[in-house]
Amino acid sequence: MSGTFSADVSGANAFSVFAHEWRSRMGETFALAPFRRTTVSGFSARSRGFRVRDMMFNRFETAAALRTGGRRVGADGHVRLWIVHRGAWRFGEPGGAEHTAPAGRLLVQTGSLSHFSAAPRTVVQVLVLPAAEVRPQRAGPASRPADTAEVRLLTAHATMVGRMLDRLGPAGTDAARSTLAELARAAAGGGLDDVEPLLSPALAQAARDLADRRLTDPALSPSALARELNVSPRTLQRAFAREGRPLSSYIRRRRLEEACRALVAPHRRMTVTEIAARWQFADSGHFARAFRKYYGRTPTDYAVTAARETDAT
């Protein structure tokens, strides 16, 4: 069984809607935990995820605090990787031990839980997979930084799988599942085989995500991104070679796209020269040549034409 899951709920029947969608998409293997009445009555959350074979991934954002009810959550045969981006995620193990994962941490835990809870406005990603896929290095939960190259690759690959899973055939689904398992082992164990071909799409996606956040940074370059991802420039170059387009071309294209948006923005306040400088072109002449090559006209002509089309509508 494989498929994607999406819910953005709040208000009077929010939890019922969420629970129905979860059961239909995730199945009994990843049964939704029972929650306390206070959580159910005030439930407001956004969730995006997928199930691929015997693995489940979900990004969960909760507006209000939540806590499970009952005495047991999850299956003994599963391992969970929680990546906390904001707020705090807490859980208890059978026997009374309590653990907290604050923002910026990855928590790896095997077996069932007694409960879990989250602070208001918590954002967490969780990957659940068979415990045999990730062998813990020591007993009990393990906590690690969430900004490592391994975790970045894991989340980048999971994001890509979520976007494409419904269009994948059996072979593609198997490959997506295998790469998730490989990256989970790397994230949990702190090591990564950076020449593994199956990891190239995830590595390329992680580099693109980083580049998109730093397009105005004059220090942005393929070598800088390789350092941030803790791989060699050659490894990163090979990942993009398999896609047929170098990383430097991606950076230039994205800078041109953002510059184009700035040119046609309503009530534009920046000049062409200022836009060229913001998106790290050497000067307005260099920007104009690159823009014309990509869009077929100069920045000024493009902006004038866009303004006329807007006025006409």
Automatic annotation (TrEMBL):
Superkingdom of the organism of origin: Bacteria
Pfam families: HTH_18
Listed GO MF terms: DNA-binding transcription factor activity; sequence-specific DNA binding
Keywords attached to this entry: DNA-binding, Transcription, Transcription regulation
InterPro entries per the UniProt record, alphabetical: Homeodomain-like_sf, HTH_AraC, HTH_AraC-typ_CS, PchR_regulatory_protein, Tscrpt_reg_AraC-type_HTH
Entry keyword Transcription: yes
Domain HTH araC/xylS-type: 205-305
Keyword Transcription recorded: yes
Entries under PROSITE patterns matching the protein: HTH_ARAC_FAMILY_1, HTH_ARAC_FAMILY_2
Protein name, per record: HTH araC/xylS-type domain-containing protein
Native organism taxonomy: Bacteria, Bacillati, Actinomycetota, Actinomycetes, Kitasatosporales
